[in-house]
């Protein structure tokens, strides 16, 4: 199962790859990383239809924001699930994300247990 | 001779009438009345020719003489002097005629014509004098009226002056009162202004704080996450190492890994400390979340004061504190953000405990620590007081108490955010936080909460 993480912080890649080391090793999931909204759309557009099942995106990013990316993905690739990960867990961001079709909303610092559970469920349903 | 008496009667009558509004003294009026009666009797007697003519004439002269004497010698009749002179020639001629006739009738016969002529001139004189007198009297009367008018005007002016003075005094006192009110309003305005400036400073500091917190949060998350991960990996390494046969090198590696692990645990520990500070800082920007629900304030205070107490007892360095709750049991429910407001109670009570702990270590068992929490219904507002008998707050730091990161606590005990957040929460409830203190005796935090908030009033 291919999952794309979108965050302008490059160290996110190392962190997530280490956190999901076992799952990646076992071939359960495959991770890809994009560092901007535009980057993410390029990666998703490489294949048609894209093999990605799930996208996790930060909200506050330079250029295209995570919420804009969410809307874009939902129009272009309605089958891909999108969840937001943000340091700003205020109701305004939450409401906008949910009404734009986000599957979930995670606040930073990320609760990895919850994230792992979410991904495990996704894998099981495949 | 009747002429003399008629003159007497006329004079008396005229005098009596001329008395004017003030009137004459009683004795003068009495004289006039007696004189008039006497002259009347004399006229009747003269007409009947009853008494001896000699006596009658003498009496008549005496009467008229007395009247003239009265006019000339009474101060009240001073202005009638010309009246006394008017009949004088007539009386003189009559008197002369009378004397001559009495003493020597023969000479009288010779002089009769001259005497008649003299009588005639005397009459003309009298008439002239009379008219003159009348004119004078009229002038006097006019002058009197004029004077009276002047006096009246003066009186009116004086009265007006008094009225104006009273009015001026009244206005002056009104202006003074207004001035005082304005002064009071100005003072109020100035103190409000300085409060606003202070609050504005605090608010901008709060925003800055929140901004900084956000910026720190992301790198801090990495520190925490990577250190946590590394600890996990070290455990995995430990598991793998067990499979390798023992050697001195392996022992050395294991020792070093143990050190690295303990270092990572320290990084993680201090990272989470920083994280809790950052989270407190973020409380500042958390305006408007959480809803205001009608809350039983007494119950909330009781619960959280209790929680603070047990939390303190369970933590290192517990102290003995007497907590006294003095609640207004008739307190109505008030709209509060319970989650936020419970922090206010926790912070204030915890602050008291920390302050009193210092006093206990300074004074020993002599000192009995006490916290008193009071609620009171003030009508439009509700008053909450948290008072301790701790060391008190010196004046020079009282203003700084509400500033973020200001702390009197040593080392890592306080973040300096507790009271700053408390103040923010109270402000978001449109309340006021006041601090009173006397060094060595007490510190009292007073919270004033409006029962109805302005946002509710307008809707």
Stated plainly, the CATH topology of the largest domain in chain B is called Heat Shock Protein 90
CATH architecture of chain A: 3-Layer(aba) Sandwich
* CATH H-level superfamily of the largest domain in chain B: Histidine kinase-like ATPase, C-terminal domain
The succession of helices and strands of chain A, N to C, reads EHHEHEHEHEH
Largest sheet report of chain A? 5 strands, parallel
Mean pLDDT of chain B: 85
Q: What is the CATH first-level class name of chain A? A: Alpha Beta
Helical region count of chain A?
Answer: 6
Structural class of chain A: alpha/beta
Overall pLDDT of chain A? 91
Strand content of chain B: 5-15%
Query: Which class do the helix and strand fractions of chain B yield?
Result: alpha+beta
Task: Assign an overall shape of chain B.
Answer: rod-shaped
**Total domains of chain A, how many?**
1
The CA-CA distance between the termini of chain B, in Å, is: 113 Å
Whole-number total of structural domains of chain B: 2
**Strand-residue proportion of chain A:** 15-25%
The CATH topology of chain A is given as Rossmann fold
The CATH C-level name of the largest domain in chain B is Alpha Beta
Order of the strands making up the biggest sheet of chain A: 2-1-3-4-5
Pfam families (chain A): Response_reg
InterPro entries (chain A): Bact_response_regulator, CheY-like_superfamily, Sig_transdc_resp-reg_receiver
Domain Response regulatory (chain A): 2-123
Keywords (chain A): Phosphoprotein
Describe the structure.
- The complex is a heterodimer of chains A (126) and B (459).
- By secondary structure, chain A is an alpha/beta fold.
- Chain A has a single domain, classed as Rossmann fold, CATH 3.40.50.2300.
- Chain A has six helices and five strands, in the order βααβαβαβαβα.
- Chain A has helices at residues 11-19, 21-25, 37-45, 66-76, 91-99, 112-125, and strands at 2-6, 30-34, 52-58, 81-86, 104-107.
- The mean pLDDT of chain A is 91.
- By secondary structure, chain B is of the alpha+beta class.
- In chain B, strands 2-4-5-7-6 form a five-stranded mixed beta sheet, covered by helices on one side. In chain B, strands 1-3 form a two-stranded antiparallel ribbon.
- Chain B starts with a helix and ends with a helix.
- Chain B folds into two domains: 2-158, no CATH class; 290-458, Heat Shock Protein 90 (2-Layer Sandwich), CATH 3.30.565.10.
- Classes of the chains: A alpha/beta (126), B alpha+beta (459).
